[in-house]
UniProtKB/TrEMBL annotation:
Any one Gene Ontology cellular component term annotated for this protein: cytosol
Cited Pfam families: Hydrolase_3
SUPFAM superfamilies, per database record: HAD-like (SSF56784)
NCBIfam families found in the cross-reference section: HAD-SF-IIB (TIGR01484)
Record's protein name: Sucrose phosphatase-like domain-containing protein
Taxonomy of the source species: Bacteria, Bacillati, Bacillota, Bacilli, Lactobacillales
Superkingdom of source: Bacteria
Signal sequence range: none
Example of a GO MF term: magnesium ion binding
Length: 274
């Protein structure tokens, strides 16, 4: 059975360390995928506007990319939003209240992602705000996060990278099945609505395009990719992934993100299945 949809995580997977990719090579790959009627999906913890800006060079050439953004909270084809899941005011209040009472949260950064704007506290330093803007468009600093008048897709806490899995486990223990906690690299721990992850987001696109699980190929490197990597047979973990990810997924991409491992692996598959 052939592949009809390829979904790739971005940071640490598709993108190099400089948050860039080989535009010319990717444009050629998209031509070949389109010729074979294979969809390419950017599946990321990033906001959809950030992903669209990232791929603007190939979009300007007329290529089409679909999106599973904000770790599955927003799903869109190249021109139509299909799905979005927001935290309820009650859920948002519980998350912020838990953080305020958690002794380990004293120095951490809180990021709230809406569909249009990203919110951080006024207490964040200019240096921290500048770092947030690398991954989130339209960042706004506010005095009170709970006073924000926009539906929120996810809440992100930022801790030291080596503490992420500890905090993910703790949050899952606290919120159980009510909310979904996941680690997405760079010290980020994301809180989303119940059942929201990249695998459920990809399923929305599968239903829209009538694609079976065996017709999906996925790439990832971190905890927020685990659900999709475990769901699909054609799943590739990056060689540069965290040790717990390398132990969880059998197949590895042909190279790491610095060496265009995702494109290498897709091109190799296309050549062998021409």
């Amino acid at each position: 059975m052939g592949i009809k949809l390829i979904a790739s995580d971005m940071d640490g997977t598709f993108l190099r360390k400089d948050n860039m990719y080989n535009v010319e090579r990717f444009a050629k790959l998209l031509v070949e995928l389109n010729n074979r009627q294979i969809k390419f999906v950017a599946a990321s913890g990033r906001q959809i506007r950030n992903l669209q800006e990232l791929f603007q060079p190939v979009l300007d050439e007329g290529h089409q990319i679909d999106y599973v953004a904000s770790n599955g909270a927003v799903v869109s084809t190249f021109d139509q939003k299909l799905y979005s899941v927001h935290l309820t005011p009650d859920e948002l209040g519980k998350v912020i209240d838990w953080n305020a009472k958690n002794p380990e949260s004293a120095e951490n950064l809180i990021i709230m992602t809406g569909e249009e704007t990203t919110y951080i506290s006024n207490h964040a330093t200019p240096e921290v705000a500048a770092q947030v803007k690398l991954f989130y468009p339209n960042v706004k600093q506010v005095e009170k996060l709970l006073a924000v008048d926009e539906k929120i897709l996810e809440v992100t806490f930022v801790w030291p990278t080596d503490e992420v899995q500890h905090h993910v486990a703790k949050l899952r223990e606290v919120f159980g099945n009510e909310l979904h906690a996941t680690g997405s690299g760079f010290g980020s721990v994301d809180i989303l609505g119940h059942g929201v992850d990249k695998a459920t987001g990809i399923q929305v696109l599968q239903d829209y395009y009538d694609v079976l699980d065996d017709e999906v190929m996925v790439f990832g490197d971190n905890g927020n990719d685990l659900e999709m990597l475990q769901k699909y047979t054609n799943a590739y973990v990056m060689p540069n992934a965290s040790p717990f990810m390398l132990q969880s997924i059998n197949k590895k991409a042909l190279a790491d993100n610095r060496a265009d491992g995702v494109m290498n692996t897709i091109e190799d598959w296309l050549e062998k299945n021409g």
